Every structure is written in C-alpha cells, then in structure tokens.
Amino acid sequence: MLRKLNIKFLIYGCWLLSSITQILTLSCFAEESLKINLSHELKKGNFLIGLKQYLGANSDSSLEKQNITFKTKNDFLELHSFNGLKHKSKKINIVFKEIPLESPFTIERLVFGPFASYESALRQAKNFKEKGYDAVVAYPKNWEVWIPTGENLPDQRLKFKLFKKSFKSRVVPFLVSEYSQQKLQGPLIISSSEEIKINDINVGKKFFIAKDSYGTWTLIQKIKFDEYLKGVLPYEIGPNSPLEALKAQAVIARTWALYNSGRFNIDNYHLCITTQCQVYKTPKVEYKNVNKAIKDTSNLIITYENQPINSFYHGSNGGISASASESWRIDNHFYLNSKIDGLDSLKKFFQLPIKNSYQLNKFLDLADEKFYGNDHYLFRWEKRLSNETLQNSLKKGGLIEEKFDLIDLNIIDRGSSGRVTKLELRFRNYKKPIFLVKDDIRRIFSFLPSNLFTINKLNDNLWLFKGGGFGHGVGLSQAGAIEMAELGFTYDQILNHYYPGTKIKKIEILSQ
User: Is 268 helix (H, G, I), strand (E, B) or coil?
Assistant: First the structure.
C-alpha cells in the first residue's frame, strides 16, 4: 500500500518563496502581482504555467498592436482586475500600451551570469544566500542571479555586471472594445466554465495576466496536475510509447514539476512551457494510453527521505548514465549516479570510471543490443566541425569578441561516466585559453547532442567529435525506458532502475 505524503512537505526549495519580499528591493515591477499565492496553488493541486512571457515587450510592431483575445462560444468570460474592475463578455481583448510615469524611477542590481542552466544558477544563488546576500534567480533571456547593489561585493572572480536603468514609462494592459478602452491593474483573472479560446486556440478555463520582474507581463494558466501532464507526455516521450513507459514518464514529470516549482517564483508562476522546464503544449488530441498512464499513476511521485526527488530525465544516455555533478555545478544525489545502462553482462566488458578518450572510444564501439535504448537515432553520433563553426559559437556566447585562429581543443576533465566536464580551447595570437565547464559546453556548442564524446583533429581546420546519447544523461533515459517497457518491465521497475533507493508515494492534495 502506497503511503500518502502531504503536499506541504513537497514544496522543495522553499527558500525561494522568501524571494518575493526580496524582489521589492530589486524591482517594483512585480509589486501588483504578489497576490498570487504560489504555495497555496500547489497545495490545491494546481500548477501555474507561464504560457506566454514578456507581453508588452518592445518589438517590431508597436506596443498598441500587441494583444490577447479571449473568446467563448456559449458561457460568458469573467474578467477581474486588481483595481476592482469586473467585466463579462464572450470576447475580451487585452491590449498592452506604454504609459508615461509621473515619477520616473531607477533600478539597480548586480547581475551574475548567464548560467547554462537553472541548476547552476540556483547553486550560485544558494552560495550567495549562505554568505548573507539577498540573491534570487531570474530568467530575462538566460538564467541569471540577481543581488541588490551594496558596498560589500561578492567574490570579484565571478563574472557580473551592474544593471542600472531609468524608467520613464511602464507597460499597462487595457480592456479594449469597439467603443471604449479601460485601464487594468494586475494581476488580471480571466475565467469561464467552458474552454476558452486564446487567439483562436482552445487552451483552458482559468488564467492570470501578471507582471513579471522585467517590466513586461506573463499569460499564466492555472491547471490541475494531471491535466498539465496531458500536455507534457505526448511531447516529452511520445504518445505511442508503451504504456509502462508512459506511466514512468507520468510519475517523473509530476515529480519533476513539484520539485522545480520554484523556477519562476520571481515572476509569480511555477513553470514555463519550453525545454527550460518540461515541454508543454495545450492538448489538442486525446490519447487513450496517455490518459490511462496519468490516471493509473494519479498523484504518485518519487521520493527520497520523504521528499520529492529531482527526477531528471533525457532522451538517450548513450548506454551510460551520468551523475548530477557531471552535468551541472551541483551536489550529487544518492539516487543519481553513473552506471552502465543495459544487461548485467555488459559490466563484464566495461568498468567505471571512464577516465580518458581511449577508454571512451572502446565503450562507444560497444553499440550493440545489450544496451537499453540503443535504437535511439543519437545513441551513437559523429560531428565534423570546422574552426569557423566553433568560433562562431564562442562569439555568439560572448566568450570572444573577434575570431582567432583555433589551434587546439583539449579535454581536461571527465566525470565517472566519461562525460566531458572541462574543455580547453587555445588560439593563436591569443595567450589566454578559454575553458568551458560542464553544462556550459553544450550551452555554447549547442550542436553537440551530449557531453559524452572524444575529439580528433582531422586537419588544421576540422575536428571530429565522436559521441553517444542525447541530453545531459542524468536520471531516466526515455529511449531506455521505452525498451525496458517493451521487454516487459513495469513502470515501478523502470523507475527503480533509474532512481535506485527511492520510493513511490501518493501525495495528498487539498480539495478545492
């Protein structure tokens, strides 16, 4: 019998919730949105999903042309604005306009980053907080860590910049009809008893429009846990995957979302819809097996020491899983470790750790049916990359200002699974080498499917990257889970394989 676990113990990383008050020292943009209670929504079994970010941002079109239209067919829409305005209609059009301020204001902060991942940014923010700084994680375009300006600066070796900007106007939403325009104040709540079309697409029944911390706005959907999963599973593992693999994906996706529900606390919602979170798209088709997988595992999550785990997953591990510290600048978790992913007989052929390119090349040559998920299209891969391609990526990532003659690529460190954790790049006429560490490698060289690779110099202008897998390699391999399900493994056996030492428990959700 599965034990129930009250969800109030599941809001991991609640130190971030305290950042709501800290935001006021960093930005006054989000002040009006503080009435959204993220912790309370989780306890009620709801996620707040940022469907569309940065509404009202400057673009090629004028601000007045940016709008969101909500429609219903039968029942009325209800709009509630924080300034007390209420409106009922079957069509609501919100337009964002730039309004001059009577009293301009200036924002100052220290900005650290960009970080290649939320995990690395969170680790740095925690380090700052331990030293007494009011640090928060933000995502204006990339993951950053913000702290207020002050006399005592953090370690000068860390890359940071001073953000200082004066604002003479602010972006404001208006309710626009054929005959009138009414100024609104966030957060806005738009709801109906029937499915609402947003810009002519059926999306859901309840939404917020709330200020973010960048001077713009976010369209946020309020959605039940299991309804959210219906928009995740088809795009993360595929609707035609075996039922037991779908069940495993449902449990880890639910667990991951709960564990990571603090990613966008600074902007008053839990999760985004891109690969920075879990890919989510509004369900347009009902998939029988997807629905069954979600229903059969409803409210089940994976726990370790009575807490939800950070249930990382990815496309393919190339036959060997990675520990968490190999992929990000974070501590290892007991349940996330390096191991050969396949039949026990493989362990006779290969022992961990993989320390060098020679050993990894031998491993990569073992592309046979004994591995779980070996039929993934990127289980083994090769990339021939020119100096120009590599230098363009370095320049785009802000690591060099002009192109230099790349003369050497050296793998300095590998993790126990053989994944590259430190890469050195040397240039002619440029004395200082550049080092890429862990997740920065794939952030800068985004064309590499994984960090599990060796490098050969083919000539002065061409490099051969030979590797395996797709993604960070930590936790569950979706290709491996699919094959395990096809071999007859149940979803709990699959989860136990990829997250050893954990337990599956049922969470208790407060009723509406």
Answer: coil
What is the rounded radius of gyration, in angstroms, for the C-alpha atoms of the chain? 24
Q: Is the overall model pTM greater than 0.70, yes or no? A: yes
Are the beta carbons of 30 and 213 closer than 8 angstroms?
A: yes
Residue 194 phi/psi, 5° resolution?
-120, 170
The token pair at 120 is: 């690395």
**Where do we find the tokens 């369900």?**
283
> What pLDDT, in 10s, does the model give residues 154-184?
765 677 899 999 999 999 999 998 888 999 9
In whole angstroms, give the CA distance from residue 461 to residue 76: 64
Q: What is the DSSP letter of 324?
A: H
C-alpha 145/C-alpha 139 separation (Å) is 9
Rounded distance, CA 31 to CA 206, Å? 22
Give the H or E element holding residue 15.
none
Angle of helix 478-486 relative to helix 491-498, nearest 10 degrees, comes to 140
- Give the integer Cα–Cα distance in Å for 397 and 380: 27
Q: Is 49 exposed, middle or buried (0-12, 13-18, 19+ CB in 10 A)?
A: buried
First to last CA, the chain: 25
- pLDDT tens for each residue of 367-420: 677 899 999 999 999 999 999 999 999 999 888 887 778 889 999 999 999 999
How many angstroms separate the CA atoms of 62 and 170, rounded? 14
pLDDT over 70, % of the chain: 90
Q: Each residue of 334-346: pLDDT tens digit?
A: 999 999 999 888 8
Q: Is 429 left (phi over 0), alpha (psi -120 to 50) or beta?
A: left
Give the separation between CA 27 and CA 149, rounded to whole angstroms: 12
Separation of alpha carbons 32 and 427, rounded Å: 50
Express each pLDDT in 239-270 by its tens digit.
Answer: 999 999 999 999 999 999 999 999 999 999 99
Q: d(Cα 171, Cα 85) in Å, to the nearest integer?
A: 18
Q: What is the pLDDT of residues 457-504, one digit of tens each?
A: 999 899 999 999 999 999 999 999 999 999 999 999 999 999 999 999
Q: What is the DSSP letter of 419?
A: -
Distances in Å between the Cα of 358 and the Cα atoms of 35, 61, 282, 351 are 57, 55, 46, 13
Q: How far is CA 236 from CA 7, 78, 232, 434, in A?
A: 25, 33, 6, 34
For residue 172, the cross-strand partners are 97
Asked whether the beta carbons of 125 and 265 are under 8 A apart, the reply is no
With bands split at pLDDT 50, 70 and 90, how would you rate the model's confidence at 12? very low
